[in-house]
Amino acid sequence: HSLCVPELRSSVCGNIISVCVPELRSSACGNPGVPPKGILNGTQFNIGNTIRYRCVTGYVLDGHSLLTCVLNTGNMAIWDFPVPICREVCKRKHNHQPLCN
């Protein structure tokens, strides 16, 4: 879709033309949420904003730590990557078998 807005080109000639620009469906991605055992740094969720994820001690991030709100080809505001998850860091017993999956 395109949004057409009349624009006054010249007050002397009185010409009015329509300027068509792609319709922006959303200017915000919204809060993507926080995964279990995760920490979200960032409070702005508009186009161009960046947020950062990390995990609490004992957990490691699986996915992208940095997400940016961007426009997709349909002019929708979306995060450039999915929300990461936090996985438990496995400690090893003496026989080198992990204590967690």
Distance between the termini: 48 Å
> How would you describe the shape?
elongated
**Fraction of residues in H or I helices:** under 10%
CATH fold descriptor of one domain: Complement Module, domain 1
Total number of helices: 0
- What is the number of beta strands? 8
Helix and strand succession?
EEEEEEEE
Strand content: 35-45%
- Integer average pLDDT: 80
Regarding CATH, which class of one domain? Mainly Beta
Query: Any low-confidence stretches, pLDDT <50, length ≥5?
Result: 1-12
Largest sheet: 4 strands, antiparallel
Keywords: Disulfide bond, Repeat, Signal, Sushi
Pfam family, one: Sushi
Protein name: Sushi domain-containing protein
Organism: Hucho hucho
Can you describe this structure in just a few lines?
The protein has strands at residues 2-8, 16-22, 38-41, 50-55, 59-62, 66-71, 77-79, 85-88.
Explain the overall architecture.
- This is Sushi domain-containing protein.
- It holds the Pfam family Sushi.
- Residues 27-88 form the Sushi domain.
- This protein has a domain at 25-88: Complement Module, domain 1 (Ribbon), CATH 2.10.70.
- The chain has 101 residues and is an all-beta fold.
- It is elongated and about 55 Å long.
- Residues 1-12 have low confidence and may be disordered.
- Helix content is 0%, strand content 41%.
- It has strands spanning 2-8, 16-22, 38-41, 50-55, 59-62, 66-71, 77-79, 85-88.
- It has a four-stranded antiparallel β-sheet with strand order 3-4-6-7, with no helix packed on it. A two-stranded antiparallel ribbon has the order 1-2.
- It starts with a strand and ends in a 13-residue tail after the last strand.
